[in-house]
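Lab notes, practical 5.
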Amino acid sequence: MTSTKELTARLTELVGDVPDVTEVVELAALRPEAVLRRNEKVLADLAGTAGITLDVAKGGEQLKERTVYRGEDGGRAVTFHASGAFTLCSGVDPLEDLFAQVEPDDVLRKAVDSVADKLGLTGLVDKEDALAFERLWKLKAAGADREGKLSDPVLTRAVGAYRQSVRDLPVLGRASASVEVTGSGALSALTVTLRRFAGDGGGQTIDKARSRRPEEAAADIAARVSKMLGGQEEDVVLDAQSFAFGYLSLGRRRAQALLAPMYVAAITVDGGPERERSAHVVAVAGSEQQYLKLPTGVRPAAAPRVA
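Output from the prediction step:
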């Protein structure tokens, strides 16, 4: 139902302005011990500001890929060794401290921005970079009686997703930061997945790469989708959700030495009532020379995630 040529055209229509030349940026290479020390200090400050009882100075449980810190009142934090990303949770039950009603988006946006400002999230990024609001998510819950009649949905949490920009280009992938707030405006959960932290160093331009044309990258992505579907793309409906140019973060469980230009597309595959519907994220090089080696052998996520 959707040809490779049609998918290429749809993707090309979605991408914004693409610079002719893009800088390849070096990232700081920190040892795991240095990452832990930095994150423990940051987490202690954030937990104190948010009123979460969590004594990270006592150390955490070191696992293979991460270190976990647990507080007596349910607070919890996790540091990922490879990337330096971390999470912080208050321990409040998901169905506690709910919103009295489903508030308008502008009210919820103010609530998450207020918590983000209080935590000083913009101060975590390098002074040459930026961290800006990108999207609002609403988490809702509903119940049902024995006859299956559903209750009206209740707004449980509001989540603000934020995107880091380096050299005026977005760092694509998982949200660079997300702030989840309760009905009373308290922090429920925080995730930080930055590739450049303030004070880490790095940031040197190691090369200047000529960007690929959007239509060339879109054709590359369409060809990969066709291969993934065994050449049967015309038997399904392909919907191009987004197509962006920028830097790419490989995820919080992977180390990364540099930021290089990439094109990233989000595509849904609908096989109709008799076949499954799935969502896929596909990334290809954004320059004529490929600087960043993408991991292989990992199945794309079936649905996008905030954090």
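Observations recorded by the TA: DSSP finds four helices and 15 strands in the chain. The chain has a mean pLDDT of 91.
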